Amino acid sequence: MLRSYKGITPKLAEGVYVDESSILVGDINIGKDSSIWPLVAARGDVNYIKIGERTNVQDGSVLHLTRASESNPKGYPLIIGDDVTIGHKVMLHGCTLGNRILVGMGAIVMDNVTVEDDVIIGGGALIPPNKTLESGHLYVGSPAKKSRPLSADELAFLKVSAQNYVQLKDEYLEEGQ
Questions:
Q1: Which InterPro entries match (predicted)?
Q2: Based on C-alpha coordinates, what's the Rg of the chain?
Q3: Are 131 and 142 in contact (CB under 8 A)?
Q4: String of b and e for 47-81 (b: at least 16 CB within 10 Å)?
Q5: Do 44 and 26 meet the contact criterion of CB atoms below 8 Å apart?
Q6: What domains can you pick out in the chain, each with its CATH number?
Q7: Local structure of residue 106 (DSSP, 8 states)
Q8: Share of the chain above pLDDT 70, in %
Q9: For residues 160 and 148, what is the distance between their CA atoms, to the nearest angstrom?
Q10: Mind listing the pLDDT tens digit for each residue in 97-116?
Q11: pLDDT tens across 140-159, in order?
């Protein structure tokens, strides 16, 4: 499930759970208490992936990035903050996600997108390249549009969702020992 590429192997912090059916390749760093669930494919081959603490990447998601080129000398890495919930079958490509974000099932977030802290992206949403999603809002649709401000309950749920997955991955780690 962990593969080296050009001599670089994914690095996992303390308490990280990676399901044995997932594949992580190359320059990937995963923060403390995060979890990678079944059938996730993450390739840190032509740039890097950084995942923060208490972040969960759910079943069937694909994580990739953009290589450097003449027109884009640094390319676009994939950077995901703390307390982020990535729903089932999400595709993230060369984008930056802040902290306390929920990305709904089947959403696609493309190159050079910045998602600020405290955002919910609805299931099936398409975030086209070069967009910024503002903190404190719900985004839905294809292409996604800002729908409305998040309620206090929704904002609180962002941390609860992440914590629920910390608890679940701890149960999986206990069972595997």
A1: LbH_gamma_CA-like, Transf_Hexapept/Carb_Anhydrase, Trimer_LpxA-like_sf
A2: 15
A3: no
A4: bbbbbbbbbbbbbbbbbbbbeeeeeeeebbbbbbb
A5: yes
A6: 2-176 (2.160.10.10)
A7: T
A8: 99
A9: 21
A10: 999 999 999 999 999 999 99
A11: 999 999 999 999 999 999 99
